[in-house]
Amino acid sequence: MSSSRILAGAVALSLALALVGCQRSPEPAAAPKPAAQVDAARLTNAATDGANWMSTGRTYDEQRHSPLTQVNDGNVAQLGLAWHHDLEAVNRGQASTPIVVDGVMYVSTTWSKVFALDAKTGKLLWGYDPQVPGEWGVNACCDVVNRGVAVWNGKVYLGTLDGRLVAIDAASGKPVWDVSTIDKAQRYASTGAPRVINGKVIIGNAGAEMGVRGYIGAYDAETGEQLWRFYTVPGNPKDGFENKAMEMAAKTWKGEWWKLGGGGTVWDAMAYDPETDLLYFGTGNGTPWNRKLRSPGGGDNLFLSSVIAVKAATGEYVWHYQHTPGDEWDYDSTNHIILANLAINGTERKVLLQAPKNGVFYVLDRVTGEHLSSKPFVDINWATGFDPKTGRPVENPAARYSQTGKLFMASPGPAGGHAWHAMSFSPKTGLVYIPAQDLSQGYLAEEGRKVSKYTFNIGYDFQKGSLPQVTAIKDAVKKTFVGHLAAWDPVAQKEVWRVQFSGPWEGGVVSTGGNLVFQGTPLGEFVAYSADKGQKLWSAQTQTGVMAAPITYEVDGQQYVAVVTGYGGALAIAAGELARDTHTRTNTPRVLVYALGGKDTLPQDPYVALPLNPPADTASAAVIDKGFKVFHPYCSNCHGDAAVSGSFIPDLQHSPTLLDAAAWEKIVLGGERKARGMVSFAEELSKEDVEATRAYVIHRAHQTLAEQKAAKPAG
Ligand code: CA
Question: What is the C-alpha to C-alpha distance for residues 452 and 619, in angstroms, rounded to an integer?
Fold first, then answer.
């Protein structure tokens, strides 16, 4: 996308904002409802309030189930587009769950921007841009996404990519307060939705691939003052431990882990139980992934890859459960947490349900943290079994690549058996709907690379483990890069139905009282299935891929189903291989809202398929190999393994800049696109390095052309 298009988008936004500012609607007969008046009682009772979707998981138990029935398995065929709203035209991922309160929708988008829309008509009410510096994009592991906002007492709360927490006036869109929640010298990034509990805004952050120490914090909703912070991994014992939990955790680490940060970031899931005042959150992988570098000599490394319960009022530790002891496969446990009451062995238990990246579905007692049951929901090979009482894995010794020094093809890979994509629990069917995936990846310990300011620092060899390098992996990866929607019975711990997909990274889900489950796909389809049987009952073309979770709400007696479209984020690696069409054209994200009898239509598909038109492949094998060795550690996190897509679409093989060495250099060394997150790499890369990456991508583009020719022989 050209910078003029970015500018056009910015102008359009400011024009729209100016119009909102100037427009005076006629005085209504009754005083308008104050915006986003959400308090403890409303949030605690949200389950019975089908009209609204007041927090990212809809209710404190985060079931993402709506009781609404107007749209149901009998009439869903009549569902049509009610309205659509174009977000800025950027080729980046959209991950936001919208919030709807009293007829107003609050939706966040890339670069942590927020828009308020009339939930009935889609009319833009206001837009807010926190002005995240483009350079901060290099600290986001997986695109400059934002997964949503929170509302409370007339304010909208936003965690920004650069680690700020901002309170926005829900009526005017003006910021009320804006505080930093991070040390700006560290590579933290906030992409998750805040939660609000009794006047406290809770927010965590990401960065475990970069080298940080994870924590979660509570801030006063009125003032932004920090009230408590809970670290997820211990710091340097010489500095004293913040609490007893850190002292306990430190016993499970070895070496000087604090120098590398430790990791365990809290970048997504939370849930809250008002009865016990327990706040639950999941923690991420260790920094670096490679345990030998992180904690030489081993150890479980608490509280990595765990779910933790603390008192919401004070941040005081209550219990933890570690899913993946001593993780070194990027098995975050930050995945969606659902609270429910289930009859287990004839007794009603207050449970916590989670399907972390490690591919195992866990049922825990949410009051005590006791392990009730666990069962793999996808094929896994990192563990050969589990202790039936504790759920502790019996590891496959070959999986410890840092100890064996050998390549291990792990299932799941770092994208997980289930990633951040929201699940849903329907109390009506008793099923959990999981956007699951089967994808493997090769792991190999890295030898002797310096820590970089710009890329992942995980002790993992991006070169030797890359697709073009290891043909065996490439074939295995291609075979296993698939996804499915699983309907999982958490009591019996078994799959009841599944919808198989040709690729992974399918969208988040919502279930409804109308016996429906909605889900979007990376290939640009929005689908309704019957919740009990998984029958495909309805679908609509969305023109671009969908990752974000849908919601449903009601205004003036009409039920709406909404989803944010826009594909990107980590992983498009293989989805790109499988869905090249999605990855070789421009991508305009939107909010799409459907209702029975909806008559809106999308404009003709505006997307431009970009030709694969590389210059001649004239570089020497030595230069291409050098480019490969630079590209994989430095570029592949964003631009994809083997230069196939990645976080951004279209992929680099289609870039017109391939034709112009000087233009390529201006971007990679000159920092010409730093405002868009593409910083200068001049401190760590030379001119020769950078020119070699161009030669490598050109070479890859020719390989792709040859593959296309082979697949479609002339005539
Ligand atoms: Ca991670």
Answer: 27
Q: Find the 674 Cα to ligand 1 centroid distance in Å.
A: 24
Name residues with Cβ closer than 5 Å to ligand 1, which is an ion. 284-285, 330, 332
C-alpha 285 to ligand 1 mean position (Å): 5
Contact 605, 586 (CB under 8 A): no
| Cα gap 249→241, rounded to integer Å | 10
Residue with tokens 């986003």: 36
Tokens, residue 556: 């003036």
What's the whole-model pTM score?
Answer: 0.91
Q: Give distance in angstroms: CA of 483 to centre of ligand 1.
A: 19
3-state secondary structure 219-278: EECCCCCEEEEEECCCCCHHHCCCCHHHHHHHCCCCCCHHHHCEECCCCCCEEEECCCCE
Q: Which among 548, 503, 546, 510 has a CA at the least distance from the CA of 531? A: 510
pLDDT at 57: 98
For the record, the structure tokens of 380 come out as 């896994």
Q: What is residue 29's predicted lDDT score, i.e. its pLDDT?
A: 52
Q: What is the pLDDT of residues 299-319, one digit of tens each?
A: 999 999 999 999 999 999 999
Check residue 453 and give its pLDDT: 83
Q: How far is CA 74 from CA 84, 295, 313, 427, 595, in A?
A: 25, 56, 45, 20, 14
CB 301 within 8 A of CB 261: no
What's the gap in Å between 142 CA and the centre of ligand 1?
9
Question: Would you state the pLDDT for residue 555?
Answer: 98
Collect the ranges in the chain with pLDDT lower than 50: 1-28, 570, 572-580, 715
User: Could you tell me the distance, in angstroms and rounded to a whole number, from the CA of residue 182 to the centre of ligand 1?
Assistant: 18
Distance 330 CA to ligand 1 centre (A): 5
Residue 125, pLDDT score: 97
pLDDT tens-place string over residues 359-374: 999 999 999 999 999 9
- In the chain, domain spans: 40-596, 621-711
Label residue 69 left, alpha or beta by phi (over 0 means left) and psi (-120 to 50 means alpha). Answer: alpha
Question: Residue 104 burial (CB < 10 Å; 0-12/13-18/19+)?
Answer: buried
Give dist(CA 412, CA 282) in Å, integer: 18
Q: How many CA atoms lie within 13 A of 591 on its CB side?
A: 32
Confidence at residue 7, expressed as pLDDT on a 0 to 100 scale? 31
Which residues, including other chains, have CB under 8 Å from residue 26's CB and lie 6 or more apart? none
CATH number attached to the domain at 621-711: 1.10.760.10
The fold of 40-596 is Methanol Dehydrogenase; Chain A (2.140.10)
The first and second tokens of residue 7, run together, are: 């500018």
Q: CB neighbours of 514 closer than 8 A, spacing ≥ 6? A: 68, 69, 70, 71, 72, 73, 76
Q: Which amino acids are annotated catalytic?
A: 330
CA distance 620 to 627: 11
Q: How buried is residue 334: exposed, middle or buried, by Cβ count under 10 Å (0-12/13-18/19+)?
A: buried
CA of 618 to the centre of ligand 1 (A): 38
At 577 the three-state DSSP class reads: helix
- For residue 681, give the DSSP letter: -
In the reported structure, the alpha carbon of residue 286 is separated from the centroid of ligand 1 by a whole-number distance in angstroms of: 8
Amino acid letter at 99?
Answer: I
Instruction: Name the H helices within 93-167.
Output: none
Going from the Cα of 419 to the center of ligand 1, the distance in angstroms, rounded, reads 10
